[in-house]
Amino acid sequence: MEHPTAAGITHRTARCVLLDIEGTVADVRFVYDVMFPFVRRQVTGFLESHWDDDSVQTALRNVACESGLASADDPWRESELGRSHAIASAVYAVHQLMDQDSKTTGLKALQGRIWESGFRSGALRSELFPDVVPALQKWKSAGLELRIYSSGSILAQRLFFGHTIYGDLTPMFAAHYDTTIGNKKEAASYQRIAEDCKLAPTDILFLSDVAAELVAATQAGMQSLACVRPHNVPLPESYQGPTLKSFDTLEIFQRL
Q: Which of 183, 206, 221, 231 could be 18's S-S partner, Cβ–Cβ 3.0 to 4.6 Å?
């Protein structure tokens, strides 16, 4: 429910705030200029060190399907071509999917594992817009649940918020969701999230920078606000929903 605004402030009542990451709480440049290049630099060495890990092989089987370059039954034909060739083929597939800005589950799982090594070593520290942490603290203090829904894997999300320039923010969040719960551009995904929250969709406010995601959330019955941040892809002219430039201008009160 939206209330009348004063001095440019948007007022909402809700019981849960569901947040996207890239373009909503963090600049897209951090993801594209820091996190993605880190994966490209590290993927070969990571696969050489972790090729036999079950979770890595599971991710690679998904990458095989997602890229269409190999069979999921024997993704990279190591037995025929040797491990070094198999790794090189897998790296090529990862780079190809990243060139397509793919949001597929296998790629995201593998990226999450590589980012894990970077965050734990201190090579990576995530950056947030300066208005984000004060707003999260205020909303949580008001009794609102905070949850994350991102195309990045749940592991990657927890690493991102666990190693920020502001410290470990993971205790602030009640839950994380990724594409394993459904496509972010489909209303059914948001319905599943509402069911997991044990809330009516109208009690949830979704914040994102992607029009198709906002439309899907609205179709599921959620409230939504489009985040207009620096360096984001502009919203299409056809999008008529409410917008927000900074969390400083958003007041959320707990719906009883």
A: 206
Instruction: Indicate which CATH number applies to the domain containing 115.
Output: 1.10.720.60
| Closest C-alpha among 69, 64, 79, 70 to residue 109 | 64
Q: Which domain holds residue 157?
A: 2-26+126-254
Of 73, 95, 121, the residue at which a domain comes to its end is: 121
Provide the token pair at 131: 């208005």
Residue type for 119, please?
F
Please give the structure tokens belonging to residue 207: 């914040």
Residues 109 and 197 in one domain: no
- What lies within 8 Å, CB to CB, of 235 at 6+ separation is 209, 211, 226, 228, 243
Provide the terminal-to-terminal Cα distance of the chain, rounded to the nearest Å: 12
Note the pLDDT tens digit of each residue in 106-139: 999 999 999 999 999 999 999 999 999 999 999 9
Residue in 126, 128, 173, 177 with CA at minimum distance from that of residue 151: 177
Closest by CA position to 142, among listed 226, 21, 9, 17: 17
CB atoms within 10 A of CB 7: 5
